[in-house]
Specification:
Layout: E1 6-10, E2 12-15, E3 30-33, H1 36-44, E4 48-52, H2 58-64, E5 67-70, H3 94-110, E6 114-117, H4 119-127, E7 132-133, E8 151-155, H5 160-165, E9 168-171, E10 178-179, E11 186-192, E12 197-202, E13 207-210, H6 224-241
Parallel strand pairs: 1-4, 1-5, 5-6, 6-13
Antiparallel strand pairs: 2-3, 7-10, 8-9, 8-11, 11-12, 12-13
Helix pairs in contact: 2-3
Amino acid sequence: MTRAPLIGLVGRRKTGSQIVGQPEALHAIEVELFYRDYARGVIEAGGFAVNLPLDSDPAEAAARCDGILLSGGTDIDPALYGHEPETDMFPPEPERDVFEMAIMDAAGALGTPVLGICRGLQVANVHGGGTLHQHNAAHSRFDVVPHTEAHEVAIEAGSTLGSLYGDSRSVNSLHHQTVDEVGPDYRVTARSDDDIVEGIEHSTLPIVAVQWHPEMMTSRQGDPVFAWLVEAATKFAASRAE
């Protein structure tokens, strides 16, 4: 039987004091936090999901994994793209920024497939030399349940996302930051009906990223972007075994 490809999921770090119900004695204890639905999307597509603590060596993590999923979360430090902070809505988490930029370095060097979701798209773009709009309040829909389809996304024909979704997709919207300048090695392959970048793909590497949250939508179990990651990771694992 073919081994399921190993997909590394990046999470975030909190302290016990930030988790409701933790006794005061544990308030200073650090906790690794991983949202379940990312792993469920990978598992349902046939992959084996493993959580990557921020203490992992990024190069070793990329080397051991057949694919990487960069998940959603807080804002990226704007210093990483040469800007001053304009909002403190979701303050940066420096440890995570450092880890994810390093794992992108390692994945790029190896050719490891990467799927970016929400913040993950922004990480890919910033890592690739792009910038972000730090606050786009009109685009976020934190006032509705996460699976709410907030707007339509137009997808470029001939792109990877186009092969997965066709020419359009109705998606949710759980982000307040958006792509400004696109990294030189990326191309925009999906835009919302209000012209926000919703999908990017690397020109030469197996990196695909979406701004919406497919793992939170009711269609998650059959969402083709998870199938893309698992298939790309399977091929990558086979190429390394040759």
